[in-house]
Amino acid sequence: MVDDSFVFKIKADFIRALGHPVRLKIIEHLKNGQKSVGQMAKILQVEQSGLSKHLAILKQAGILNSRQVKVTVFYSIRDKGIFDMLRPISLFLKKKLKESQEILEHLGEE
Question: DSSP letters along 52-109, please?
Answer without folding.
Answer: HHHHHHHHHTTSEEEEEETTEEEEEES-THHHHHHHHHHHHHHHHHHHHHHHHHHHTT
